[in-house]
Amino acid sequence: MRKLTYYIACSIDGFIGDPSGDASSMYAFADEEFIAFVTQEYPETLPTHVRRGLGIDEVPNRKFDTIIQGRASYEVALKEGTTSPFGHLREYVASRTLGESPDPHVEIVADDLVGKVRELKREDGELGIYLCGGARTAGELVDEIDELVVKTYPQIYGSGMPMFASGFAVADFRLEDLRTFKNGAFVRTYSRKR
Predict the structure, then answer these.
(1) Which H or E run includes 27?
(2) What's the pTM value of the predicted model, to 2 decimals?
(3) Long-range contacts of 40-49 (CB under 8 A, 24+ apart)
(4) What are the beta bridge partners of residue 173?
(5) What are the tens digits of pLDDT across the range 36-81?
(6) 116-139: b or e for each residue (b if 16 or more CB lie within 10 Å)?
């Protein structure tokens, strides 16, 4: 069975953006060392235009072949005129309000997101499913998440958009890896205890 991995950036206090969802302050930590890590380990998590700009457009996907993102995350690309921000992956957008997809490469999932994820997880394949965000989508899929890859930047937000917008429930994960960077960022990888 394929894994659903929530690969997300956050502040030290666990926010993935300010109250409006803006996380642009975290971009300051995308230095040479950190970009080298992402391009080596998770190249497919970079939008297609960023991959092209870094000269890694032809680098094969290492961990994922499918992406799921919420409407707000997808809206960032739409505002820039990009209808298929991850053209190198199969793209799904969870939205009850978007209606018809603006791009034939992007499938809108309006109903039964959990059912769609379970269907994708049952597919044959070596590569997994990248959950890009946001908080509501992650909250809806919290019970389906098999792995967390949390990029933590040395900032405190105080308040903002949490990693999960869901009700209280305890779910246990096991720390599998910890990678630290000279700029103070670190990446933790957890697997779900089932």
Answers:
(1) none
(2) 0.95
(3) 42/7, 42/149, 44/86, 44/88, 44/89, 44/130, 45/7, 45/130, 45/132, 47/77, 47/82, 47/85, 47/86, 48/84, 48/85, 48/86, 48/87, 48/88, 49/82, 49/85
(4) 192
(5) 999 999 999 999 999 999 999 999 999 999 999 999 899 989 999 9
(6) bbeebbeeeeebbbbbbbbbbbbe
